[in-house]
Amino acid sequence: MNTILFTWHTHSDTLSDFKHALTIAQNSGAKSLLLLTCSQNHYPEAELSSLLRACPLTIFGGIYPMLTWKNTLIKQGALIIGFKEAFDVTLFSQLHQVTNEDKLEDLITNTLEQKNNYCAHDDFLMFYDSRINNIEDFIDCLFECLDHGINIAGGGAGSLDFIQRPCIYSNQGLHSNVALLVTLPSKLNIGVAHGWKIFQGPFLVSDAHGQTVQGLNYQPALEVYCQAIESASEFRFNGSNFFDIAKNFPLGIEDINNNLLVRDPIATHNNHLQCAGNIPINSMVYLLESNSEALISSAEQAAITAFTATTEITSAAMIFDCISRELYLADKFEHELDTIAKHCPTPVLFGVLSLGEVANSPNGAIALLNKSIVISSW
């Protein structure tokens, strides 16, 4: 089923160009608009929020470090995708204030009860503020509350400096500390991959809290992490190059089926490792490694999975690709985009470089991923 009516993209970073395109989109006959913009645009927040609130169509989307259109990387600019249908969009707000599982379940349940049609939907896109510190608790609880075999693809919005700013778009304006759940009119097909393999380990997570790993093998986590890398590679930490080295060596949690859940160390504090996802205490983690060929090959496998899962006509394909993959691949990143594009059956191929990815795990539950690629089609 062809749901796409309007597409527009630009490398311009001016709000006036985005505003002009939004006017054209509103006059296209579309009923819903997906709005995606680059964080480097630095649109004036008040003016942007007023523009969103004035839009008469259903809107959703967010601000991401970078975007993709077909096989092109957009570092500054914007995308607008117009759909024939009026998509149902649910906003879960003030998530950072929900401090325990019972309250989170109440918030999700009460929000969903205001909608009468969720029992008829199984397929969703999700856009969320990547700086919400309890996003994994929200994801777990959302899966339990929807209470059926849903398919979902999504990614965290924000900017590479990891400073929290409003980054999610809705008809109510510009938001932080929120998640958007968008129902799709047809079946969502998903391919997920990461391309990382075990380098060293395992290490016991002897002390951890949420996304912060405080101890590995009963020693300070940062010391163990750095020593393990320096002992088996040419890399040397000097106090200012942590992220440059760490992007090559994420952590991995192995499940009972030998699948690796990747966790990206993004900062250090007090000899602790700050990751872009939870790592449970008493779990066993590995240091991982990869190379350009393996990452690009994994993206190709995800594309094949997403694009060959159905015989139905695909009208749109959206990629949620971790920004750290682009940082790792550098000038080879467009090879990854080329590889995906050659398998894509629709000309409407677009995406975001995200700060965390969301997709179904092999057992059907929803998982927060790092350093991964989620390719969706519908």
TrEMBL record:
FIST C-domain domain location: 221-361
Listed InterPro entries: FIST_C, FIST_domain_N
Domain annotation FIST: ranges: 31-220
Endpoints of the signal sequence: none
Pfam families noted in UniProt: FIST, FIST_C
Domain of life from the UniProt record: Bacteria
Protein name: Histidine kinase
Organism listed in the record: Colwellia marinimaniae
